[in-house]
Amino acid sequence: MPHLSIAESLREGITEEMERDERVFCMGEDIAIPGGWGGAFTVTLDLENKFPDRMINTPIAELGFFGAGVGAAMMGMRPIVDVQYSDFLFLAMDQIVNNAAKMRYMSGGTITVPLVMRAPVGATGRGSQHAQNMERYFTGVPGIKVVAVSTAYDAKGVLKAAVRDDNPVMIFEHKLLYGSKGARAESGTVDGSSDVPDEDYTVPLDRAVVRREGTKVTILGWLLTAHLASQAADQLATEGIDAEVIDVRSLSPFDYDTIGDSVRKTGRVVIVEEGPKTGGVSAELAAGIAERFSDSLATTVARVASADVPVPFTPILENAYRPDVARILAAARKML
Amino acid sequence: MKDVEIRVPDLGTTTDEIEVVQWLVRVGEQVTLGQPLLVVETDKASMELESVAAGTLKQIIAEPGQEVATGEVLAIVASEGAALPAMSTPSTTTAPAPRLQKQAVRQLDNALAIPDVDIDGYDNDFLLSLYERMALIRTFEERVKLLFLEGSMPGTIHQCQGQEACAVGVCAALNQDDFITSTFRGHGHALAKGVTVEGLLYELFGALSGCCKGKGGSMHVGDMSIGMVPGIAIVGGGVPIAAGMGLAFKMQKSSQVVASFFGDGAIAEGAFHEGINLAAIWDLPVVYVCENNHYGASTRVDKVMRNQRISERAATYGIHAQTIDGNDVLAVYETARKAVELCRDAQGPVLLELLTYRRTGHSRRDACHYQPSEERDYWMSRDPITLLGVQLVERRGVTQNELDELQTKVNQQFDDALAAVPDQPMPTVDDLTTDLWV
Predict the structure, then answer these.
(1) Does ipTM come in above 0.85?
(2) A27 to each of B141, B243, B371, how far by Cα in Å?
(3) Is the pLDDT confidence value at B90 over 50?
(4) Catalytic site residues of A?
(5) Using the beta-carbon criterion (under 8 Å), do B241 and A109 form an inter-chain contact?
(6) Which tens digit of pLDDT belongs to each residue from B415-435?
(7) Residue pairs spanning A and B at CB distance below 8 A
(8) Are the Cβ atoms of B213 and A166 closer than 8 angstroms?
(9) How far is B274 from chain A (nearest CA, A)?
(10) How far is B48 from chain A (nearest CA, A)?
């Protein structure tokens, strides 16, 4: 079974979906320039040679081409639209929130918008405006499915499921997990690679996944923090503390079945989020868990998140901004 | 004769009481539709309330100084005929108003240069179909306005009286399977493209039988089955969407085109620039139709644009463009037809600027005090329906009687649809969460 990075598995997934369905096409900045980058993180590298008519390289105009993605999707195409950095989604916000998400509802259920959106998140040495975790701005938007992928296996399966889904789907990816190579490689990268089967498969868009089974405490994370949660659980295991790690993966809707099973077992929850604590995804998740499973909770849900500041540049501050294993351990130990 | 109660409309103010200041009409006097009857004061301002019926003022119920709540009766008008009298046929006896001065109409692009449109080049059936469709839109808008004034219709409305030639001329140049995008001011576009009076009216009433099951409302009317995307009410928002639709048609090797309607307010939006530029660089089959009605809300276009003409913007994108008289339905039709041809021939997109005028308020209860009266008079004298009617009578041997019959027909269409409003199924609370996901 081939072992792939997330960038490679996404590329495979896109390629296979474009081969399978001629309505699928890609649209974005710097995604289809021969001799170029294959997008900011090499995901679409060389695809312009395979699909010369379906790799649409755009001007720097996120509002425009996200709107164009909505229009093309409404007319029966299945666009995969991406931004180089998720921060740029703010420029496209009107088209995503007011049109992609609402068009079906406003039309009384007659319009279908099978649009896939891809966006890289994460603090990676680029200062404040190429670093935000944008998940929080989309989890509360009715009409958009939001997924976050932390492994190569999930990335390909989620991409394929998203392309085949008839609703708008936003896929968040993490810059430190791509495993991009060459000039587009990141420093401080975390290994998101996996064995990826050759045969066709999909990963459901509405399911969390248990990464490690345990009984004492449930640690919830996604993207980079899913990996940090696993590292923390490894450490806790050496101390005799058996932690369960759940990769939330589906950020809208949340998979409260999987999460609930775990909460009922452990009674303790730590949620780890990269991004400011106030108004984050973890706030909604904590409230949702409290509403549903309060009888099972032995103690208050804990959140490990970033400070309520923009992402700083200097490495010492950026590292302080990003949740880390030590803070996860401290939160877990405190409730045990 | 029938008594029509004049009630306090929902004025959208924070309190629901108004004070009657002064009556402008005495009992026994004749009143016309829309005539100011009285001055009232709200918590915000004083304003005039108009009559929703024509006839005789029979009784004043609320005297000056009295406070009256929303929905309560102010007076009774003994109406001539129906409670909501039918629209009169636009008069064709007035002299035709002057066409726009030639120098005001700059042709930027020879590919779209319009020949002098000669009404003799068309058969009467076609011409009458344009007339009837414009009359239908006018009637719909005027009748709906009264329904709002009486307070029987929920929400808000943005109307298009005086701009009918834009919608009808452009849509007449499209095929059934071509698409349009529209705006919050979309009733005319909807009727021009083929949304039924029933589908549109019931949508405004929020009924399940509306064209969007009541989930869209006045600002989002549309019907994909006849080629109309529900109105996009964020200014400029339809411009990129139309580019994407055009991109789909191009990739599908379809001959379909998109006509994307927006107003002069949209041209200052980033979406306008980004969307048109995408359509330009990819040669997409999109006719961008700017209905320059001279006002974005209360702001006149010359306050927000340095160019003389909106169509001048096309030069920066390297695309075809034309400014034409948007109140001349044949000029609009001919230019749109050529624009559609260019698009089907992979020479799109095209930007059309249709000069017209917003004679109603931006939305309900806007009295347009910022519009100079000479400007209003000029454009009122260039009524698109009257302009065509005059030509039909003077040059094509159509009788006034025939035009009256068409008006009677569209009145009947509206009356029939309106009469069935009480029978329409309404959504239940169970419908709140449907139609969101596939």
Answers:
(1) yes
(2) 41, 13, 44
(3) no
(4) 62, 130
(5) no
(6) 999 999 999 999 999 999 999
(7) 144
(8) no
(9) 5
(10) 35
Tokens of B244: 């994407």
Using the beta-carbon criterion (under 8 Å), do B215 and A77 form an inter-chain contact?
no
> How far off is chain A from B43, nearest CA to CA, in Å?
33
Write the single-letter amino acid at A136: R
Amino acid symbol at B415: D
Measure the CA–CA gap between B184 and B262, rounded to whole angstroms: 9
The yes-or-no verdict on residue A10 having pLDDT over 60 is yes
How is chain A split among helix, strand and coil, in percent rounded to 5?
40, 20, 40
Taking residues A282-296, what's their average pLDDT? 98
Which residues on A lie below 8 Å from B214 (Cβ)? 108
Is the confidence at residue A113, as pLDDT, over 50?
Answer: yes
- The confidence score (pLDDT) of residue B96 equals 45
Phi and psi (nearest 5°) for B212? -125, 30
pLDDT band at B48 (very low <50, low <70, confident <90, very high): confident
Go through chain B and tell me how many residues it has: 438
Residues of B with CB under 8 A from a CB of A: 179, 210-216, 220, 222-225, 229-230, 232, 234, 237, 239-249, 251-252, 270-271, 273-275, 277-278, 281-282, 434-438
pLDDT at B13: 57
pLDDT at B110: 54
Per residue in B372-396, pLDDT (tens digit) is 999 999 999 999 999 999 999 999 9
**DSSP 3-state percent helix, strand, coil across chain B (nearest 5):** 40, 15, 45
Burial degree of A152 (CB within 10 A; 0-12, 13-18, 19+): buried
Q: Which residues of B touch A74 (CB under 8 A)?
A: 229, 241, 244-245, 248
pTM of the model: 0.87
Residues of chain B positioned with their CB less than 8 A from the CB of A98: 232, 234, 237
Residues of B in contact with A164 (CB under 8 A): none
Q: Which residues of B touch A79 (CB under 8 A)?
A: 244
- Beta-carbon contacts of B156 under 8 Å, excluding residues fewer than 6 positions away, are B12, B218, B219, B363, B364
A57-100 per-position pLDDT tens digit = 999 999 999 999 999 999 999 999 999 999 999 999 999 999 99
Terminal CA-CA length for chain A: 40
